[in-house]
Design a protein that fits this description.
By secondary structure, the chain is an alpha/beta fold. It has 11 helices and 10 strands. Strand 5, helix 5 and strand 6 form a beta-alpha-beta unit. The chain is globular, with a radius of gyration of 26 Å.
């Protein structure tokens, strides 16, 4: 007599299949990274800065990393006059991401400029150092000595001019009466100093700035200390709290053969987008920025200062939701 085992019923088979499908779905969910498996696609515009400035160089290099990390995303770079121009491009929809100094962001917000309420940060990056450049034999030892001189002050939409105005006020000088302001950017100021058409220029940028490096190879120049202005600068109002005392190391510009560090003022730079930016895109851009630090830092030394531990301190802006998601995903 042959023993026949009972065959499972249709209902039991169905239950088994459903259970197996659930296990497979759970396994698939577990294996997919928290940030999602799909790479952002489409187009993205990134506003940087003037040619020969650190913003522009940083943007050029970051574009390479974004292209590697998000091959389906077309990244377009937009040149600008600096921080305030960048913020205007961002809030008007001409750019999707940009860079700006914290003092310029605070000014834009406090003036209630169009779109200010939608600004969000993805990361604190590196610090800009304020540089006052003169020919080596200049009598200028402080910003207070600039009275009556022709000074390169940056273009009207630049963060350079914003802080130059405040520094001159802290030095007891009137921007429109006590100096001759020459409203040009770092792409033109070095040549004007070399030609003797200006007596000095201000620049706010990461160390080193290519344009200052190049000028130092052609002309004997030096950097003027600005450390004596930090207290009167802070006394001007709440927006100046974003400036801190800093020191440019002696080897910041080997071309100058300075041999001595220079006391100055620094301000943090932020990576910025709008509150309505796609969460996945903001997360991916933030990740690329943090992961590209060492590679970009080989060519833009300021980028070496990008640090995961300080990147979340983006005052005066809140973090974008996508950036916050990235930081939570890498939190120990």
């Amino acid at each position: 007599m042959t023993l026949r085992l009972p065959r499972p019923g249709r209902r039991r088979a169905l239950q088994t299949g459903v259970a197996a499908a659930a296990v497979l779905a759970l396994l698939a969910w577990w294996l997919v990274p928290l940030h999602g498996s799909s790479s952002p696609s489409g187009r993205m515009s990134f506003a940087t800065g003037v040619p020969t400035g650190v913003y522009a160089k940083y943007g050029d290099l970051l574009k390479e990393d974004l292209g590697r990390d998000m091959p389906s995303l077309e990244v377009r770079l937009r040149r600008s006059q600096g921080s305030l121009d960048n913020l205007g491009q961002l809030t008007s929809g001409k750019a999707d991401f940009t860079l700006a100094a914290a003092d310029a962001v605070a000014t834009y917000r406090d003036r209630r400029e169009p779109g200010w309420a939608g600004l969000r940060a993805c990361a604190r990056l590196y610090d800009d150092y304020i540089q006052l450049v003169v020919q080596k034999d200049s009598r200028v030892q402080s910003a207070r000595d600039l009275k009556g001189m022709r000074i390169g002050v940056g273009t009207d939409e630049s963060g350079v001019q914003l802080i130059t105005r405040r520094l001159l006020e802290a030095a007891g000088l009137d921007f429109t009466k006590d100096i001759v302001p020459v409203r040009v950017g770092i792409d033109r100021m070095p040549a004007l100093l070399e030609q003797g058409r200006i007596d000095a220029f201000f620049w706010s940028g990461g160390l080193p700035t290519n344009a200052v490096q190049s000028l130092g190879r052609r002309l004997s120049i030096r950097l003027v200390q600005l450390g004596d202005l930090i207290e009167p600068l802070h006394a001007l109002g709440p927006e100046t709290r974003y400036y801190r005392a800093a020191v440019m190391p002696a080897d910041a510009y080997p071309e100058l053969h300075a041999g001595q560090p220079v006391k100055t003022i620094a301000v943090a730079n932020l990576l910025i987008t709008m509150d309505h930016a796609d969460t996945g895109l903001a997360e991916s851009v933030t990740r690329s920025v943090m992961n590209s630090r060492d590679r970009i830092g080989q060519k833009v030394h300021a980028a070496q200062k990008v640090d995961l531990r300080t990147a979340i301190f983006t005052d005066p802006l809140d973090l974008h939701t996508g950036a916050r998601r990235y930081y939570l995903s890498v939190k120990p």
